[in-house]
Amino acid sequence: MKIAVLGAGAVGLSIAARLSSLADVHAVARPRHADAVTRLGLRLTGLWGDGTYTFPCTTDLPDDEYDYILITSKATQTRDICEEFGDRFGDASVVSIQNGIGNEEIISEYTGNVIGGMIITGFEWRGDADIHISVIGGDAQFGLFPDGCDERVDTLVGMFETAGIVAVATESIRSAVWGKTIYNAALNPLGAVMGVPYGALLNPYAWEVITDIVEEAYAVADAEGITLEYPTTEVYLQYLHDVQIPSTFAHHSSMYQALSAGKRTEIDFMNGALVTKGAGHGISTPVNLLITRLIRFRETVGDS
Ligand SMILES: NC(=O)C1=CN([C@@H]2O[C@H](COP(=O)(O)OP(=O)(O)OC[C@H]3O[C@@H](n4cnc5c(N)ncnc54)[C@H](OP(=O)(O)O)[C@@H]3O)[C@@H](O)[C@H]2O)C=CC1
Ligand SMILES: CC(C)(CO)C(=O)C(=O)O
């Protein structure tokens, strides 16, 4: 089994490491990461156990036929990755393991074999070639995009399971991706703007904002024909409050981490995507629009 991981950073290198004992895995990363992983091996600590893994990691993709190509870049880089490597996709199943709405749609412009993915685990850089698995908020999910499931999905899920990454196959990956995006849209920008971890957002004033974000998101999902796992906003908000936030209480969102590092966020694939899709259905999403503008403002001015 040959697997390539494109845009390998915190998520991609960690997954490459765990799959490397089961398959022939090649990670494509930036020079700094490729050099460090080649010199030191990748060190993983935390909830997946501690260990150091060696596997090929370079800045280019060796000419070969791959069974699976995993895309693990930020959503903002999906199109560039597809432009750079799209003519090498061949018959591979190309799998998005990213946050946000829109990655699978972009990949579909380059291949007909798209598997959507959703992972709700925290991966944090601790140093060069050194990643800590900080939180696990549920099972990873994979399914054919836009819907359905087949042997390739089952084989992928089986490999993840054998590698110790809890994963399930789903017939409706769009529902899983939208569900995760609503979780991210509810928590990430607010935590990033306020400079707090997820747990602090249980504060009643923050909770009112979260409630508005989720209600708008559910209206847009409904108009898009997405059937969400938690059927109503009330049921989902209860789950977010009682299960999802407690299991990721101390986590600073990836959006907070991106802003702190002076990097662009994935807001356009989260709240921004909800605003755009809502507008297409004549649904107004004022709270998602406001929080999107606040994040764009922070991206523009940084911490100055
Ligand atoms: N970290 C986490 O805890 C979680 C992240 N996710 C999602 O997973 C995705 C990946 O996140 P994460 O791993 O944290 O992000 P990272 O920024 O750590 O990793 C992505 C890496 O891909 C690199 N890259 C981009 N384009 C190319 C290219 N053409 N060739 C080689 N390398 C490239 C980036 O380099 P550069 O930055 O220099 O462009 C970066 O090093 C995101 O959508 C994120 O939201 C989902 C769950 C949890
Ligand atoms: C909480 C976490 C790590 C779960 O995957 C996440 O999605 C994020 O920080 O954006």
UniProtKB/TrEMBL annotation:
<comment type="function">
    <text>Catalyzes the NADPH-dependent reduction of ketopantoate into pantoic acid.</text>
</comment>
<dbReference type="GO" id="GO:0015940">
    <property type="term" value="P:pantothenate biosynthetic process"/>
</dbReference>
<dbReference type="InterPro" id="IPR013752">
    <property type="entry name" value="KPA_reductase"/>
</dbReference>
<dbReference type="Pfam" id="PF08546">
    <property type="entry name" value="ApbA_C"/>
</dbReference>
<dbReference type="InterPro" id="IPR013332">
    <property type="entry name" value="KPR_N"/>
</dbReference>
<comment type="pathway">
    <text>Cofactor biosynthesis; coenzyme A biosynthesis.</text>
</comment>
<dbReference type="GO" id="GO:0008677">
    <property type="term" value="F:2-dehydropantoate 2-reductase activity"/>
</dbReference>
<dbReference type="InterPro" id="IPR013328">
    <property type="entry name" value="6PGD_dom2"/>
</dbReference>
<protein>
    <recommendedName>
        <fullName>2-dehydropantoate 2-reductase</fullName>
        <ecNumber>1.1.1.169</ecNumber>
    </recommendedName>
</protein>
<keyword id="KW-0521">NADP</keyword>
<dbReference type="InterPro" id="IPR008927">
    <property type="entry name" value="6-PGluconate_DH-like_C_sf"/>
</dbReference>
<dbReference type="InterPro" id="IPR036291">
    <property type="entry name" value="NAD(P)-bd_dom_sf"/>
</dbReference>
<feature type="domain" description="Ketopantoate reductase N-terminal">
    <location>
        <begin position="3"/>
        <end position="145"/>
    </location>
</feature>
<comment type="similarity">
    <text>Belongs to the ketopantoate reductase family.</text>
</comment>
<feature type="domain" description="Ketopantoate reductase C-terminal">
    <location>
        <begin position="173"/>
        <end position="298"/>
    </location>
</feature>
<dbReference type="InterPro" id="IPR003710">
    <property type="entry name" value="ApbA"/>
</dbReference>
<dbReference type="Pfam" id="PF02558">
    <property type="entry name" value="ApbA"/>
</dbReference>
<keyword id="KW-0173">Coenzyme A biosynthesis</keyword>
<dbReference type="GO" id="GO:0050661">
    <property type="term" value="F:NADP binding"/>
</dbReference>
<dbReference type="GO" id="GO:0015937">
    <property type="term" value="P:coenzyme A biosynthetic process"/>
</dbReference>
<keyword id="KW-0560">Oxidoreductase</keyword>
<dbReference type="InterPro" id="IPR050838">
    <property type="entry name" value="Ketopantoate_reductase"/>
</dbReference>
<dbReference type="GO" id="GO:0005737">
    <property type="term" value="C:cytoplasm"/>
</dbReference>
